[in-house]
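Batch manifest line 336
LIGAND: iron/sulfur cluster
JOB: complex structure
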Amino acid sequence: MVTAPASSETTDRASEGNPRRIVVAQELGYCWGVRRALDIIQDAADPQHPIAPIGDIIHNPQVVTRLRSRGVVGAGSVDEADGRGVQRVAITAHGMGPHLAKEAAAHNLELIDTTCPLVTKVQRLAQKLVRQGYFLVVYGDSYHPEVRGVLGWAATSKSVAAKHIEDLPWNAKRGEKGEGKIAPPRKVAVVSQTTKNIDELMKFANALQAMVVPEGGEFRLCNTICEPTSERQNALKRLVHDDQVDLILAIGGRKSSNTARLAEVGNQMGVSSHHIEGIQDIADDWLQDVTVIGLTAGASTPDDVIQEVVDYLVAKGYAPPEGGIRPVDPDYVPAY
Ligand code: SF4
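JOB STATUS: finished
ARTIFACT:
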């Protein structure tokens, strides 16, 4: 890769005391729940007694690779882990349905549970809403382990995962009659995957509410987007607003939902934004005519991966962020 040439406009701005520089969101990278899950796994890790998380322990390939050397190697299922001779399986921070504990017990395997307490809260809330007679809509990606886990705890056919109104089993408002019209039941509640974008959740909820409330329908929205996710999105909005950012790089594993949402927030604010896994994904032409680069990172992105991106951009002629990549408060615990 070659250094992006400074445009005449860029040079002008630099000479006005506005040099090319990197700014970072005040909240970025590892969230409390991921740090907690990694602490549990790292404390338990022992190459002589491997652990098989069911799925990626976190959605970051660099961390998954590092843990492999300590005997933590993911498996697709409890069956697969048992077949490999592993005696310990783990639930990831995203959580899992109740079937997993039963399967582990049936195979006589030790179970290490790293489910984020903020995900557990959604699982319990889903159960409560079902008990109260609501049809449960989980706003999120139907394939995501967290969403599948919440639906597993809800344990009812009166539930669905949906990210768009078109994903729902209904296409009409309550009271609308006509061929092919399917209206929602009287009571519908929504919980959200913890890492979703609040603006998108509100659009979805408003549209669904309009379908449910006619004719005495009851609609309930439970905003279960977690505090660290909201903070990362809000910190990015403040960064765009306060620092006149020209480009946003959101750093995180390709499977990281919350990193994808950060890039989405940046694009919605009119700033060209890219979800990158690391420096290998940065295209030279993105940096053309760019004076201020805003950096953010998903909840499962370690500091050294963020620092690597900073070092790469510094080598391209950008001033590093004042005060380093982030203020870290190891004692911070979100409300739940
Ligand atoms: S993103 Fe939120 S719910 Fe997910 S692990 Fe982090 S704190 Fe927990």
